[in-house]
Amino acid sequence: MQRMIALIILLIPGFLAALGIKWMRDTVFGILHPPLPSLFVQFLAGLLFFIVGLAFIGGFILHRDRKRNKVQPRFQKKKRSESE
Hints:
Number of helices: 2
Helix content: 55-70%
Distance between the termini: 38 Å
Number of domains: 1
Radius of gyration: 18 Å
Number of strands: 0
Structural class: mainly alpha
């Protein structure tokens, strides 16, 4: 059940990133989608969706790999000293 929930959580940003790529591509070809007022706004919204989706998926994978100690030393979390 937990794996299914994790898959669903990853699919939503994946779809947003794909939609962002589609909107940016459609802007290049001059295709405007109805909810957006101009091509420039459509490109910015597509870029935002793509960056947010990619960052979420990347952060999820980094978090998972840190828990399993499968990252290089430069990506591991810094350990806090006991005095803090």
